[in-house]
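Researcher: Please translate sequence to structure tokens.
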Amino acid sequence: MENVLRPLIVIGGSVLLTLFIGWATDRLLCKADHRHPETPLWGLLRRGRIPYQLLLCAALLRGSWDSARVLQEYRVGIGQVLTLVLIGSAAWLVIRIAAAIVETTYTRYARVHRDAARVRRVRTQVTLITRVVAAVVGVVAVAAMLLTFPAMRAAGASLLASAGILGIVAGVAAQSTLSNMFAGFQIAFGDMVRIGDTVVVDDEWGTVDEITLTFLTVRTWDERRITMPVSYFTSKPFENWSRGGAQMTGIVYWHLDHSAPVELMREKLRDILRVCPAWDGRACDLSVTDSTPSTIQVRALVTAKDADDIWTVRVTVREQMIKWLTTAYPHALPRVNTADAALPPGLPAPTRSPDGVRPRRVHETPRTGR
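Model: Translation complete:
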């Protein structure tokens, strides 16, 4: 009877005690979250209840397994497994706590500061810091797990002697990876590009969706994802439309006939922008910027608060202006002349002979071969 009750008490007691402590801790965090709604820290810490309970259970079983006196022939192996679970759950819990602290700090910063560009910059840095902490903790946890094996500790002395050569080989082999990693730090803390920035790379317009230590993802206007190494942004030029502020100026071009009513187009442009909610009211202008023998080039200049709104303003102005010209001034649209040019008043209209050759007028001078 003792051989049955002892394992049940040790193992069952460890599991029940773990569940009770985990439930009590979760309730305390829940009450703290309701009592302090201004900070999300307590709610974020609740995400670590699974690794927390796993850590408690592994620690209790590791300390009381010998008292259970069960599976004595596998005592060393079971102890090794519990130690590995203890180290892994501890690393998992540290990562969750660090992520909760960093996320809380960012949330408080975003509430205080209204500058969207500065908030995006801090968001980029916070994301990178979280990934670095997770990577460091993961590497330390794996190293701690390996050191629990006696064979690995014995091999450590021989590996230490060749660490220099291995470091050189690894550095040469991972040169591109290391360059991308340092480029990631340069982007995050050099404020070159941030999460949420509107950029143009390789003639593709999009928004920065994710930044990691080695790659960056740009979400295009048609919902595609372009993934490229972060070293691209430190070695090649690119357009960052959000740099220094999100306000933008857009241009709309029309190619029209020389008789186009430019002054009336200026008034129509103002009427279109007054009812366009995407226009920010900063500036608008319409000018003739070029001319050819058959058309003139008319340019409209409009403004908006960001890249999305400037696109809306441009397409609205282009569409409504063409519609207005087609309805009210169709002669202003470009056309190909297929008739003879109109002669000045007082000159007789030219006539043609039956063979199709226009006769020369009296005042015309015949051309010579010179």
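Researcher: Any highlights?
Model: The beta strands are 198-201, 204-211, 215-220, 225-229, 239-240, 248-256, 279-291, 296-304.
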